[in-house]
Amino acid sequence: MATFRDEGVVLRTIRLGEADRIITLATPGHGKVRAVAKGIRKPKSRLGGRLEPLTHVSMMCWKGRELDVITQVEVVNHFRQVREDLDRMPAAFTMLETVDQVSVERQPMPELFAMLVGALSTLAAPDGNGAPRPDTTGVLLGAFLWKVLALEGVGPVVTECASCGEDVVLVAFDEHVGGFLCRSCRSGQAVLPETVTLVRQILGRQLRMALAAPPSRATAEVERLATIAMEYHLDRRLRSAHAPSLLPRAPRPAAERADAGDDSVRPQQIAFE
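The structure corresponding to this sequence follows.
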């Protein structure tokens, strides 16, 4: 039976039989992998605790016709800082859910995998004093979703009006049109000027600057609009994105219509820019 080695991030697991689990992983070299972890639910299993969702692992598998079989696994990163912080867990699981939906089995995805690991590392990173990072969860999740959309080829038009193509002030966002709109073409939802600036920074390789923005209506709007755009692309609801702890701490803009948003990572690391 052929074997292969790869890295992976555990996206989800389901029970199989009395003692096994099917583990779904995102890998750079083999795309989305569904593999059986035999005996993992037994108390003395050597795989127990190593294949929980959110864990970054290095593994060896036997290649099967439909399901592979995990034979060896070593933990690269548990992302302990995220697991121990209920405010960060929903953002992390939204990232996992998104990758699970956009990835394809057996098709390599090195760029998407690097983005996922980098985003989780950034989410786990403490500040320079070892304390939890400031509240950048919303804008970080929003940045990840915008970047995944761009990688999918459906990123928002943000440098000009998505409808008329004019380089003018953008005042609205409409996922059906595919981006931000000027005053003359506006439809969908009104947006703040600061929101447009943040999305431009995120998609213009200025992620560090965007993540440095203090929590505000604009940072909350970045995450909210990114979630709307991703759900429109997937044609389904991202359940993790609507967990209570992801509700914005800053006041959300009124939902008005526009025609009347390794455990030892280095401090302040921005890992998926």
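The chain is about 30% helix and 20% strand.
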